[in-house]
C-alpha cells in the first residue's frame, strides 16, 4: 500500500470542541486588534499573555511543561480560527509554537524551563534562522558561534527578518559552529535578547505589521554552553515541514476572512439598481474563491492528520508541500478578487480589503517559497530537480 492510500481519519469531536474554544478566543482577543494592524507596527504583548492564559501556546507541548499535548490538527485549527479574524497576530502564535517545540524536543532541563516559561506567558520567543544572504538557502548561513577557552560560545553576525526579534525575551537562533562540516556543523542556541552585544533594528515591512520583523545584530554575544541545543539544520528542516502545515492553515483563515468580507460587500453594495453580487461575473469570482478555500481546507487538514499519524517526514512531504503551495497561491488570488470587488473604495483606508491583499503577498515568500515547494514536489515525482 502506498503512503497516500492510507485512510484519512475525520477530525475528532475533541478537535471540533477545540475549534469552538479558539473561535471564542479569537473573537474576544484577536478581532478587536485587527483595526490596529495597519497603523501600528508594534506587537501587543497583552495578546501573547491572553494566548498563554487560553492554552494556545504549547498546544503540542508536554503537560508537565504546561502544554496541552494536542497535535498538529489542533495547532492548525488554532491558526485558522485566529487568522480568520486577525492573520498577523496568528503568526505570533505560530512562531511561539515552532520555537518552543525546538526547546522541549531538543533541549535539556534549562531549555525545557524556557519552554515552560514561554507556555506560561513569561518568555516570548523568536525563531532566528534567516540572514541577509541566507534566505531560502539556509545552508548558506554565516552567523558564527566560536567556543571560548572557558567553554562558553561567542556569537557574531547578522540575522534578518526575525519576527518579534526585538520583542522576544529569548531568541532560538541557528548558528554555524563548525563550517568544515557544512550543514552538519550548525547548532541552535537559546539567546537572551538583552545579552550584551545583541541589538535589534525593526525592518519596515508592508506586511505582518503587528508582529514586526527585525534585523538582529550579534557582536561577540556570549552564550553559555548550557544554552546550546542538541538541534541544528536537520531539526529545523523537520520543523519547517510542520510550520508549512500551520502556515497553510493561517492562509486558509485569511482567505475565509477576505471571502466573508467580499460576500457581504457584494450583497450590500448596489450599482445599476441591484447588488453587485447579482452580476454573474462578480458571483463567479466569489464562487472561484470558494473553490480555492475548500481545496486548501481539505489539503491542510489532510496534511495535519498525516503529520499526527507519526509517519516519517519523507512520507508526508507531498502532503505538506502541496498544502503550503496551494494555500499561498490561493490566498493571493482570493484577496485580489476581494480587492477587485471592493472597487475604488477597496483601495482606500475606509475598507479593510487592501490590508488583506497586502498581507497576503508575504504568503508565497516565507517558510520555503513557491519555487522551493515546487522543487520538493518535483523531487517526490522522481524528477531530477536541484
Ligand atoms: C514578514 C517576514 C517575516 C519573516 N519571519 C521570519 C522569522 O521569524 N524567522 C526567520 O528565520 N525568517 C523569517 N523570515 C524569512 C523568510 O523565511 C525568508 O524571507 C525567506 O526564506 C525568503 O528569503 P529571501 O527573502 O532572502 O529570498 P531569496 O531566498 O533571496 O529568494 C528570492 C527569490 O528567488 C527565488 N529562489 C531562491 N532560491 C531558488 C531556487 N533554488 N530555485 C528557484 N528560485 C529560487 C525565491 O523563490 C524568491 O522568489 C521572514 C520573512 C518575512 C518577509
Structure description:
The protein has 386 residues and is of the alpha+beta class. It folds into 3 domains: 3-124, Acyl-CoA dehydrogenase/oxidase, N-terminal domain (Butyryl-Coa Dehydrogenase, subunit A, domain 1, Orthogonal Bundle); 126-227, Butyryl-CoA Dehydrogenase, subunit A, domain 2, CATH 2.40.110.10; 233-380, Butyryl-CoA Dehydrogenase, subunit A, domain 3 (Up-down Bundle), CATH 1.20.140.10. It has 11 helices and 9 strands. The strands form 3 sheets. It has a 4-stranded antiparallel beta sheet, with no helix packed on it. Helix 4 (87-106) packs antiparallel against helix 6 and helix 8 runs antiparallel to helix 11. The longest helix has 36 residues, at 233-268. It is globular and about 80 Å long. The two termini are 29 Å apart. The model is unreliable at 1-9 (pLDDT under 50). Flavin-adenine dinucleotide is lined by residues 95, 127-130, 135-136, 161-163, 205, 207-208, 213, 362, 365-367, 369-371. Flavin-adenine dinucleotide (FAD) is lined by residues 95, 127-130, 135-136, 161-163, 205, 207-208, 213, 362, 365-367, 369-371.
